[in-house]
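pinned: reference chain
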Amino acid sequence: MSNLTHFNEQGRAKMVDISDKTETVRTAVAISSITVNESIHSQITEGTNKKGDVFAVAQVAGIMAAKNTATLIPMCHPISLTGINITFDWSIDETYVISIRSEVKTVGSTGVEMEALVAASTAALTIYDMCKAAGKDMIIGPTMLYSKTGGKNGDYLRENNE
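pinned: its C-alpha cells
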C-alpha cells in the first residue's frame, strides 16, 4: 500500500500531509445540471416559486457548501478560499435544463476541485429542494470537473463535457 497516498503504514486512512507543498494560485471549475419540467421552469423564470428566489438560494447554498467541503468529505483539507462564483444558464430545447457552473479559487498547498464539485452539486440539490413541490421528476447531473489550474500536476481542461 506504499503507493497509496491516503493510507498510513497500518493500511488505515489518513489525511495527506501537504506541509511541504508549494503554495500556488489554484482554481477549479465544476459543472452540473438539473433538468426540470415546464411548470418548474415557469416558476423559476417568473419568480413565483413559493420558497422564494430559486437561483439566489441555490447560489448561496453552493457558496456555503464550497466553504464547508472539508466537513463533508473526510480526507479534504480545510482550505481558505479566496473566491467562489456560481452561475446558472438555461438550455431549453425539448427539455428544460439548468446548467450550473461553479468556480473556486485559493492560494494554497492543495487544489480546490472538491470544493468546486461540492458547490455545483449542492446548488443542484438546492434547486431540487426549492422546486420539489412542483414536481419530483427532476434529474440532477451529470456533474464533473471542467478545469483546474495550479499544483504539481499542472492544469487540466476537460476535452469533452458532454
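why pinned: The mean pLDDT is 93. The first helix runs from residue 38 to 46.
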